Amino acid sequence: MHARSSLALRLCLLLLFGLLPACSSTAASSRATSAPRNAVVTTQPASATRQPEQAAAEQRGRGLFYRVGQGAAVVYLLGSIHVGSSDLYPMRPEIENAFNAADVAVVEIALDEQSTQQMKAEVMRAMTYPEGDSLQAHLSAETKTALQGFLHQSGLPEQMFMHLKPWAAAVLVTTLELQKAEYSAENGMDLYFQRQAAQRGKPVVALETAQQQLELLAAIDESMQDLMLRESLSDRKTLPQTMSDALAAWKRGDAEGLARALLEPMRTAEYQALFDRVFLRRNQRMAEAVEGYLAKGGKHFVIVGSGHLVGQGGVVDLLRRAGHTVQQR
Description:
6-stranded mixed beta sheet
């Protein structure tokens, strides 16, 4: 992944796409995905077809998957990518079986139908300027020119972007390009397991609220938002390949490769404040939550963005430094 490219994509993969299902009234999510909403919800296969199904799941990849603790207190950690395609599911048997055996599923944000409806208004307020203000008033000349060129080439109406904040416009550009390649937040790993939990009556606990994540986005200064939009416009044609590369690393269980692709480009002076807010501080809170689950006992299946698990200062690193045994599976 190019060091200067796809800042918007990295944030989408690790944070923003967790909110997109609540934005179904925006232009991005009004475009239906190729797979129906419940396409990724599967049941256990019949015994006659179990072996072929398991073989197919193994071919879908190892995934970024860890086990913490042992005995009566176990936490499974699955690194999620918040956008995907229906052919990722079901996952390999060890992951699916760990989820089935868990007492509780833990996610970044609860995205059941009720909570999604409740947060929709919050998300839309955070994404848009009030009446009388507009995107154009907050963009540099360079980014305005890039946006006009994009609208002319794509044939999309300017109205679609007029009242969006720059970070939200960057997300929309990124989303539209990924949807062309048949990647969707509706097929993200978080939603897959939340639907599985609902189907099985498994309790779901959220590590964060939508409001907390929206506050992170609101804190991004306008110059950084302008950069996000400009990069998303200039790099949009490479986004599907970037997404493909990230998923390939995830399927290999390549923690170092994901850290290089998703995190290292943000470990610069230019992005340091954003990196600290979006990753390091949240990683510490997530690691503390995992330690709480270990102290409580039982089996917890925790799904968080892959970027939170990998690299120095990631959840796995923090847990190991705290003396916990963390095994990649």
